[in-house]
Write a structure and sequence with these properties.
single chain; alpha/beta; Nitrilase/N-carbamoyl-D-aminoacid amidohydrolase; six-stranded mixed sheet
Length: about 260
Amino acid sequence: MRVLAVQPDIAWEAKTATFERVDGLLAAADVQPGGLIVLPEMFATGFSMNVPAVAEGPGGPTAAWLGALARRTGCTVLGGLVGDAGGGRGRNQAAWFTPQGREGGRYTKVHPFTPAGEPDHYVAGDRPATFALGGFTVAPLICYDLRFPEIFRAAVDAGADLFVVIASWPAGRAAHWRALLIARAIENQAYVVGVNRCGRDPCCAYAGGSLIVDPQGAVLAEGTDRPETLAATLDPAAVAEYRRAFPALADRQKALAAPGCARIH
């Protein structure tokens, strides 16, 4: 399955302008029907705490645009948007759309970013989500989730063998972004597609660095700090064969996931 990771410089809280920027990046890419196109966290607006300015109800402009992109390209499209949770709060979500333009589902970010005050404005999700595509079980996750390996393990237990991590990951912690994406691929014996933004917003600079990693931790494609689109071809049979040949996941001691630990005297 061919994956395109789109790394835009987002126009702050300006959806139409950002849609045009993404269209420009895709126009220069080799888009092939049947693939997966991935866009960053809150890709249409930037990582804004101004929920009234960015939140949308069902069928809002960002969802409509993503659906139209999926129909136009014949690809599955996954991107970050803000769902309206009511009461002035939002949900930071990854939504995916089928090649027919229909919304396939949404994942709500389980770990809002406390240092930015995200929990004050966004309702947290409570579980991972997965969907089937191209022989894979895909688990979308969002930005700060990357620091919490237990949510990846929960998705693996649900069958995940391809993780898509969409983000607004700041330049100051770019080394963590790269290291953790590779670690999550290795420890879960899964492909990991990390899609970050570049450019600046009123709070942060973003270094891009989108990354596509194979189940053994080899980097298949890596972005710069500029707007661009990365591409790689992923093989579900390769994941299955590697997990059979080196069955580390099967050797997990699941009892260690239970609360408590032994005291050593």
